[in-house]
Structure formats: structure tokens, C-alpha cells
Amino acid sequence: MSISSAIPPSSSVSPSLAESINGNAASLSSFDTSVFKSYLLSLLPPVLGATLDDLRDSLFDDEFDERISRFAAEGGSVIYVAKTRLESEDEGPPIYQYHIAPHLSYNSSNVTTLALIKRTPVLDTLAPLPSQLHILNLFGGEETPYESLHAVVSYAVKPWFDAFVGTRGGAKEGDGKMGIPMTKKKFAELELSLLHLQQNVEIPETHLIIHPVIQRAVAQAQAQGVRPNINHLPTSQINDSTFLNTLQGHVNIWIKSIQAVTKLSRDVSSGTASQEINFWLSLERALEAIETQLRSDEVLMVMDCLRNAKRFHATVSFIADTGLKDATDVVHKHNQLMKDFPLNELLSATDLDKIQESLHLIFNHLNKKLKLSPYPIRRALPLVEAISRDFNDQLLRVLTSHRLPYTPYETFDRLLSQTQAIFRTWDEHMGGFIDVARDVTRRRREKFIAIKVQPAHAKLMERCRYLRDWRKQHEQLAVMTGPTKGLGGSGKEVGGMDMEEEVKEAYEVVKSIDVLDVSVEGTEIWVTAENAYNERVARVENQIIARLRDRLGTARNANEMFRVFSKFNALFVRPKIRGAIQEYQTQLIDSVKVDIKQLHDKFKTQYRFSEAYHMSQMRDLPPIAGAIIWAREIERQLSTYMKRVEDVLGKGWELYAEGQKLQTESTAFRRKLDTRPVYEAWLHDINRRDMGINGRLFEIIRLRGGGYQLAVNFDPQIITLFKEVRNLLWLNYQVPHAISNMAKDAKRVYPHAVSLMETVRTYSQTLDLVEKNQPIEMLVAEFRNEAQRMISRGMSVRWDFFVNAFDTHRYLPAAGLEGRENRNLAFVREFAGVVSVFQDKTNSLIDSYKEINRVVEELSTCPFTTQAFAELIAKIQSAEGYANLDHWVARLDQRIEGILLQRLSSIIQLWCTEFEKNEDDSRRDSALRDLTSKRRGDKKFKDDKARSMRFAPTPSTYLSSEDQVIFLDPPIEYARQTWIKQLHDWLAVVCGQHRIQSSRYEIGLQMRGTSMTETTYTSLLTQFTDDTLNRPFALIENKIQQVTEYVGKWLQFQSLWDLEAEYVFNRLGDSLANWQQLLTEIKKTRSTFDNSDTERSFGVCVIDYEQVQARVNAKYDAWQRDILSRRCIAAILKARNELEHHSIEGLVGGVTAGRRF
């Protein structure tokens, strides 16, 4: 058939379709089929076992080129090369025939089929055909396609997919999004389905033989639309014995064929669990098919014919002979267990999690349905063993896919840990199954059988456990010999062996074998590899022992040994290493025993006498919770010491003799540390007490020493209860609901109770301070009265109002508080505020009072200056804002008056002392003070010096002479006025200070009937009881009298100018005695002015007579000359001259004669 003949007339074909067909025809003509033919001639002989002659005779027919061209041109198509065996009656060699077709068909004569699948849309003759074609061999022949398809999926498609996915590494999240896990599951399900089809026990199909006459009669009745019966048969046939015999023979054949199905059975232990399940499900379907045939019109008509002919022996026992009813009943009951059996979940599991999950499903289903279904326990036990075999195979398949020896240790340990968990899951479920099986056997009253299952995975379980321990020891050894642990090294060691490399090479021996092969041959291979591994590791252990003993030998104390043991504890599971360090173990175990004994002694001292008790009080831990924490801390230390024992002895330390003893002692000690009795005793005590939050807010208690005291009516045990419950809940204790509610109430009231307690305590302390500082009592009376008013108000408040109060007061302003509860909560805050103000004012006033006392005391020692006194009095005046201030200020003012009066008395005495000093005394005292000040630098002397009066003398008073008149300038009255003014100035330093006043801070004027009080301290001058104030005035008058007398002597010289010389001479006459008296007086008086001084000092006053001295002296000289010029004076001078010229002898000799004057 050509391409052109296949194309219909153009009138019935669209232009686009015509172009497409023409294009395909062009492409078909472009592919060279000879290339494909040559390819087949090269491919098929080795693949199909074909000869070239057979291929040329049968494969390359007239339509070969057209089929190949169409296959090459059409995209995504496949072509099949089938090899079939020809039937021949001869006994010679078989004859095979080959043909090529675009569609696949199957029959029993097919030997094999080769599928050629295009990998590109269109084949290209210029490119090699092997790269464009995918070849798949589909086997046929005597075996069903299930085996070959299962082999293709299990050993080709699925491994190839897993290998590709495995090379993608850690893209696990991406795999989940791409659906790779689901694809793996589908592959597993497909493999499982093919395996089930392969393992199914073939249930023979039963086809009942029907006589042709019966078939025609039934067909005729069905055509007429009526129910078939024997009336549709010819009458001759109904009574024909031959016909009836034939029908009876058919019935006998039916019985035999049905019995072949109903009596069918199988050995459970001979196959898999899926075969057992599928057997019963298939048997049920076969029995249902037989029942369907027996209910057909043909079979019913046959039975009617036999009954009509009175052949009851063939009809009556028909159902009983077949055994169909009993078999159906048994199958239905057994299939209660087999239906929905989740075995496929196990067989299609692709990872360990799915396997573990499937075990839960399988045993839950088995245990549940076994109680309902009469499935024999004798068959259930082998069924579980068959499930164990499937479980073993599936586990092996999953573990083998991971290549355990090549995986990192973390992955290896995780996989085998999960495997151990799966084995434990099996054991747990197996225990449940055995219990169910025994219970079912007892209820069914079946004959006793041993309920025992031999799991097929026992060897695999033991191998996995051993592998995990072995790999763990190897990993510990590898880590310890690594460069980071110090036992290994980067290069060759002293002994010529690199331990790290040696351990790696030892492991390489094991990596090359199948470690999960538990067969006899596999076990032998494993033993051989393990022995080779142990030989290499033994050399490494010897090196480790040498270095470990060296480290332990150089350890300076037990703690360093413990660190070494803790670091290399993982190696102690090796008997060789453990035996080498046993002597050090004994030493450290003794150290641990000493520590545990000290822990015993610590426990014996009891919590209340320990340091922890005082620390708990500091940290506000209640006694019960503190005792529990203390006991748990001891238990933690005990666990630490037990951990040290494990570090020293290694895993399984409790199996050693010393370990067993320590384990026994630690267990007994832990029982003593059990805090449950303490907690229960506390519960009993709380339940026994009548604890509650009620009663009045305050109470008055009587003191032992007499008197009363205000206290808060709140049981401290309630606060302790709240803290105990809080800490016990933190310690994971279950506190009863009633106690917990009481603690919640305490927690709610606790802030207010603590606030009240603190407020009352503050109030009491403040009252004590006021008692200790009596002078300030009247000042804080207002604040104390306010606190007492709050206490009186609180006397009517009860705790019941606080229990159900909420904390809305924290978020609402005080003005918005309404209701009794809010008023009570506000009372707590107001009371605390009032007492706080009372405390602050009291403390502030105490500090101020101390400062005022210090300042008042300083008034007696401060420098005697107006500014110093004013500053101190201003500091005293700073107190303000208190009640009863006027009375308190009056008392303080009296105290200040007393001090100032003393200062006035002292300063007057000092003034008098200074006033009485003359010039020499002042000069001597000044020199003495300067010398003492240099030698002594103490502060007191400097203060005394500062306080000493610097008496300012009056300006010098000059004696002057003008117009032959002597006078004093300034006059003596000026000195009196100056001294009195100085005295007044010193007195004004004190008397002029402003008094402290209480009305300074009062607003407005106080209208009082009394006169205005004085504002200064002038009245102090009237308070002297002695002549202290009179003395300075008396001294001034005395000093004035002295000066006046001295000045009077100078004023006498005025007579030198007032007298006439002749009057004097006439008065004296010629009396020598008068002249002698005058000369004597002149000589005596001349000493007043005839000297080197120019002034006369009276201490506080100086008389300067320099100007008068010269004039008086000149006047004296004039008077002297006048007197000497007189005659008698000349005679006296002559006589003296004569006397002077006489010799001493003559004078002596002429004594008797003498000369008288």
C-alpha cells in the first residue's frame, strides 16, 4: 500500500491536512531504511539469538520499509521486534519466526520481544542509531510476564532512579517539593504489586458444563423475556433417560470440580505472608464465582429436570457433597482477618520510619481482628513468622541501600538506633500478640499449643546490635587517636606507627564486605574481617596504654587524673586498656568514696544548721522550698560523684564489685534525700492549721515590758505559704487545689499586706526617732496626728475586702476609684503616703535640728564679727513648714540669748583687758603671740587669735604752742568719745543681730493685742547681773584722769611765758636757799621735756609733745641764762673756780679753815 493511495481525494481534504501529509511523505522518503536494516542485522543475532537467514526470511518483508519509515518520521513512537516459536508436530529443533510491528500483542508462543524506543522525535541517518534508540527486552515463554516485569522494575528502573537521586546529595527539601519521595513510593508499590501477582497461588477456575439442549432452552426463554423452566424443553427430552443420564453425569463432574476448590489448602510456613493473604482472598473470589454459576438459569434448569425425573440422589446431596457452604463460611470468617491487612505498608516502605509505622498498623490489625475472626492460632503463628521474614527482607533492603560501612558515624548511629527502636517495637507488639493468642486459645477452648514465634530477623537484630557497638568503639578509638585528642599525631610516632592511619586502614578491611549478611557464608566473612581488624587495632591499643599510663603517672593530683579519665573514658570498654589502668582506678575510687562521705556529713548537719539556710533567708526562700532545693543540690553532687565513678570505671561500672558497693550506698543515700516526705509533712501541717485571710486590718498588741504597739493583723505564715507554693510549683510539685487557691488569695493580698507592714514598721521607727529627739516633737505633731487619723480610719477595714479586689487601682486615677474595695485599696496607698511624709519630715527635721544645734554651738566659737554672726543666725532661720514653730523658735531664741550673753561678757572682759594694757605690755604680748603661733600651728590658737580684740587706739594727741599758749589738740574729751564708740561697736556685733522669728513664713500680719516684739538682741545688755558692763566705762574715766594729770604738767610750762624776770628776781631776793631751791626745781622739772622722747604712751592713748618740747626747752635756756647773769651767780662761779684750782694737799691741809657756801 503506497502513501498516495492512502490519501483521499483533494476535494475532501483540507489544504493544511494535505500539506501535513505531503510533508510526512517527504520525511518518510528522506530516511534511509537500509541503515536501520543493517543495525537490526547487527543487533538481533546476539540479543535474540536469531540467525541472519531467519531474519531475512521472516523480518524483512515487503512492508518493512514502510513501517520503518513511518517509525522514523513519527515522534514519540515505539516499534517491537517479536520472536515467536512455531508449532510443529515433528520432534526436531524448534523453529522461530520474527516479525516487526508498531503495536504489542502477547500469546503463549512468544519467546521474547524487543522494544525499540526512540529517544528523539525523528531518527536521523547521519547520526549513530544506538544513541537515538532505547532497547528493552521483554521476556515471554513459559513464565508469566510478572517475573520479567518485576525484574525490570526491581533491578533496572528503580535502582537507576535511586542512583540518580542519590547523586543530588542534600537537596532533601527540594526533593519533597519535586515529589521524589512519592515517586519512590510508587516504584515500591509497583514492585510489590508485581511480586504479589508472581506469588499468588493459582486458584483453578471452575466452569460448569451445560448441555446444549439446556443452553438453547434458556436462550429461548430469555429471548421471550420469561423465566426459564422445564416447560421450555421438548417433552421427549424431559423423559429421555439418555438425556437425563447425561445431565446426571454433568452434575457429578460439577461436584468434583467444585470440591477441587473447596478442599484447596496451603502450608502457611512454605511461602510469604502476602501469599497466605492473597490465597484466602482469591479463594473467596473463586467460591463467589462458583456460587454465581450455581445460581444461573442453566444450572437451575438442570436441577429441575433431575428432580422432575425423581433422581433425588443427584440433587439432594449436591450442596453437601461439594462442601461449598462450609468452605464459604470458613473463608468469610478467615477473611475478616485478611481483608484490609496492612502488609503492603511494610512491603512498600522506603525508609525506616515507614517500616516502624507499618509494624504498628500490622499488629494493631492482627490483634484486633484475631479476637473477632476464628482464624486458627496454629496458622496465625506461622503467619507472624512469615511477616517476620518479610520484615527482615524489607529492613535489609532499606539498610543495604544506605551502604552502612561507608556512611558517616552520625548517620550510621542514627540508622542503627532507629533500627534498634524498630526491633523493640516488634518485641513490644509481639508480647501483645502472644497475650492475645493465649487469650483467644483459652476462650476457644482449643487444644493447648505452645504460643511461640521464631522471628526470622533475630540474627539481623543481633548483627545490628553488635555492629552498632563495634562501630561505636571504633569511632571512639578513631577520635582518641586523632590529632585533636593528643594520643595520635600528625606523623610517625616514636614507635614507628601512625595510630590514626592504622585505625583507618583497619576499618578499610571491614568496608569491603556486606556487614548485614547473616548467612553462614556471610558470618564467616564477617568473622575473618573482624579478626583482621582486631589484629591491627591491638597494636594501636598497646600504644594508647603506654601513653595513657604516662599521663596518669605525671598527674599531680586526683582532679587531673579525673580529667584524664573523663577525656579517655570511651576507651575503657576495651578490656586490654581497662586492665592496664586498674591501679589508678582504685586510687580514684577511694577519692570518690571520701567525697561521698563528706556529702554524708554535710547531710547529717541538717539544713537548718547549714550555711545554705542563711543564704536561703537572704534570697527570700521559704524553709520547705529551701530544704528541698538543698536536698536536690546534694543529690546533684552525688550524681556528679557517680558520674566520676563512671568516668573512672567506664560504662557498666555498676557490674564491678566496687561499683556495686557504691551503687548500693548511693541508692540508700538517694532514698534519704527523697524530699517527698518533707513535702507531705508540710501539706499535713498546712491542712491542720486554720489559715485564712480575714479579720480587721490592724491590731493592738501588748508589749512584755509594758505598753502597747500597733501591728498589722496578718499572719506571716500566709506570706510564707504563698512563697512556698510558688517555689514548690517551680520545683514541679503538685500542690492541692485548696492550698493553691489560698496561696492565690495570699498572692493577691500580699502586696497590700507587705505595704501595710512596711508602713506600720516605718511609723513605729519614726515614733522612736521622735522620742529620741524630744525637741522636734512639737514640730512634727501635725504629721503624726494625720498618721493617727489614718490609723483610726483603718481600724474599721477588714481583710475580707481585699481578697477579691482586683488591681484596677493601678490603672485608674485616684479620683475615679469607687466602691468599697477601691476605697480600701486607696486607703493602703494613702496611709503609706501619709507615713512616708511623716518619716521624710521627721528625718529632714532631725537633720535640720542637728545642723541648727551645730550652728548654735558654733555661735559660741565663731569669729566675733557681724558677718559671722549674721550668717549663722541666717542658717538657724532656715527651718520652716512645721507646726508649733513659734513655741519652738521661742525656746531656741532663749538658748541663743544665753550663748550671745556669754559672748558679750567675754568680749567686754577682753575689751577691758586690751584697754588696760600699756605700750610695753602690748608689744610684749604681740611678740609672744607671734612666737607661739610659729611654734604651734593648731587651729584653736588661730581661732583665739582671730577672736582677740584688735583695739584701735585714738589718733595721737598733740601738745602744741601758738601765740605763746600751750594747748592739747585734739582735746581729751575726743578720746573719751572715741573709746566709748569703740565699745559700743563691739557690743553692737551681738546686740545688733536680728532675732530668729517664727512669723517670717506666715502669710499676712498677725493681729495681736500685745506690743511688737523686739527684733534684735539689744536687750541682752540689761541682763548682766554684775558690774561687767560698768567696768569698761570706769576704765575709760581712769584713763582720762591719767592723761589729764600728765597734760597738766605740760600746761604748767605756760608760766614760762606768763612770768616776768624782775618779778622772780625780786621774789627770790638775795636768799641763797631760795635760789638753791629754785635751781633744784628747775633741774627736776627739766626732766619732763629735756629727753630724747617725743611722745608719751598711755596704752590706748599717745601724747605727742615734740612741738612743745623745743619751745619749752628754749624758754628754759633763756630763763637759765637770765638767772646766771645775776650777781650772786657770778660770785658763786668765781668761788667754784678758785676751789677747782686748789691742790688736794692744800685742800686737805686747809680743811680746818674750810670754806662755806
From TrEMBL:
InterPro entries: DHC, Dynein_heavy_tail
Dynein heavy chain tail domain mapped to chain residues: 244-800
Biological process terms in GO annotation: microtubule-based movement
Pfam families tied to this protein: DHC_N1
An MF annotation (GO) of this entry: dynein light intermediate chain binding
Signal peptide: none
Gene Ontology cellular component annotations, sorted alphabetically: axonemal dynein complex
PANTHER family: AAA+ ATPASE DOMAIN-CONTAINING PROTEIN (PTHR46532:SF4), MALE FERTILITY FACTOR KL5 (PTHR46532)
Sequence similarity: Belongs to the dynein heavy chain family.
Record protein name field: Dynein heavy chain tail domain-containing protein
Organism: Hydnum rufescens UP504
